[in-house]
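ok so heres the complex, two chains, lmk if somethin looks off
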Amino acid sequence: MIDPFSIDPFMALAGRLQGEIVIPLLYRLGWMQWEDVGLGWSLFAVYGFFQVLATWAVCMPLEAWRPVERWPNRRVVTTDMIYTLIARVGLLPLVTFVGFYQVQVWVNGFLVDHGWIPPDLELLIPPLIGHPVITFFLYAVILDFADYWRHRLSHIVPAWYSLHALHHAQRQMTFWSDDRNHLLDDLVSALWFGFIALLIGISPFQFPLLVLLLRFVESLSHANARVSFGWLGDRLLISPRFHRAHHGVLAAGQRSCNYGAVLPWWDMIFGTADFSRDFVPTGDPDASEALASGGYFAQQSAGVRSFAEVFTRARTEPADSSRAGIPG
Amino acid sequence: MAKLSRMILSTRRSLLGAGLAAGMAGFALRTHLAQATPAVSAASQAGPKAAPGSGGIAVVMNSANASISIVDMASRQSIREVPVLREPHHWTLSPDGSELWVGDAGGNALFALDPTTGAPLGHRLLADPYQLWVSPDGSRLTVNALRLDHVDVYDAGTLKLVRRFHVASMPSHLTYAPDSSMVYSTLQGNDSLVAIDLMRNAIAWRVRVGPVPAGIIWHRDRLLVALMNGDGVAVVDPTDGRVIGHIPTGKGCHIIQLSPDRRLIFVGNRVAGTLDALDGNTLRPLARYTLTGGPDCIAFAPDGKLWISRRWRDSVAVLDPETGAFEVIPVGRSPHGVFLSPMLKLFADEGRAGLGFASV
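and the predicted structre for the whole thing:
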């Protein structure tokens, strides 16, 4: 009766979290009006926890079995673990939920007041109603397409790349590196997807297992593992080999390759795919050492400094186009 | 408890013999689907079918599942899932009772179902229909757009917007005066209650009534307002919003509903995990039931049992108020509104006042 892809084996745990921790806390703070948002956050936190657990259970053995690189000191990887826990287990989603609530009220309210009720994809393609899995895959393709352009722009726009460089500065890239992002970069991403959500309507909590699967692919693509899906597989789904080329030292900066997150199709269509590179060294040679190997806060503040320097440079010097010329 | 038992028997009698109202004619949302952009045929929405038993059906809105569970009341089995767009929360009957309207808040859509079978009839765009209810005289549909901070008053016959009231913030539940002259909406976000004069299409007053107001009913010339951070029910004068009393119930007091014979008032306490039964005459507590898992909307069955959604347990509890024991029926994620098809008999006999949201 219930669609198997919407069955949620973790909901019982999220319900416990909601009933025994989140709701009593909201009650104590006098914030019971946020109870529905609290349930959304509880679901997100539980899924995030199991996402991390499942990714670790698969990627850890892979990285041990066929590592691309071996490092005597893995301290910088520990910092990436902090990013992952913040992003997936709840703090960032909590801030996003609360921070964007009023923004989406204003934007949605403005649109509705002016006669435009944001439609859902299913309203544009009515036969999709009642076919949640197909609908989800369509949403996933659209979102992946949007993410390709977000990511590509983050390399093209100098100020944006000054923040995104934090993600690329990691020389010891592992499956933990997927969430290693500057908070301002995360903020821009949230706005980007908020805009897309306004256009097509998205409710990821309807499809927790599939969201988990997609996030798993993204984490796996960063793994320090000699894993390729073969000639055909690499063209269907992004593999660690394909995405590692994007993180290569020669691909950092404004002209990179392999921007896709889950599907390599957009790179193939728009001429940015490079299937030729085999497990290249990663990192951004131009990034400051603080971005590469600093702790969490050192990296965040270095990102802000780097961001500010872009504007300072723009006022005092002609544009430096040297990095834009690095071949892909 | 003996008094409660007598009252429950009385409630049961008023519901016994409930059948399915048939032959209702008049307004139907499906007649307006030509205006909806775009409309969906019933066939394209229908899931696998199973015939409901003679005991009627329960329609449960799974707010985190984008679906509606159709439950056979006799066998306690979910027999069908009706897909919607995003977040179905609450329901109301169309003016003539021939359609069950379900608000899909996140999907910005109003879905119509056959209230006797749960078969989908179509849907149309409507901004953020979170809580919705047709006025006792059937002329107005009031929609609380919780996410968008406004209360929309529609012509219930044409579904054309009559007036939008920006009432920040978070309009939650609503009730009407029995003569349909006023509608009252609780504003969760700023501890207030707003009264809208439906004759003048203007806000009559807005008053703070207590921390985080949620459920509300009209009861004997008073408004009873559940306070989620106020541990009980505020008694409010509907003429000016003045708080004239407070009934302690439990932490997270959220929902408040009348039994069909109006002799009992049930109050759900979300944080405490309890359900209180109050005497409809004296407003004094008669019994307390333990019901964990986020008890929410309540519907009354002909056998005197209460069907209550449990938001964090993905289930509906069927509570026997005589014993306090309850059965559990698994449904979708975060179930919210519950409609029972035997309630159509009450609607046919007594109009909307028989459905438990307002007394006269």
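quick notes: Chain B touches chain A through 63 residues (CB under 8 Å). thats all i got rn
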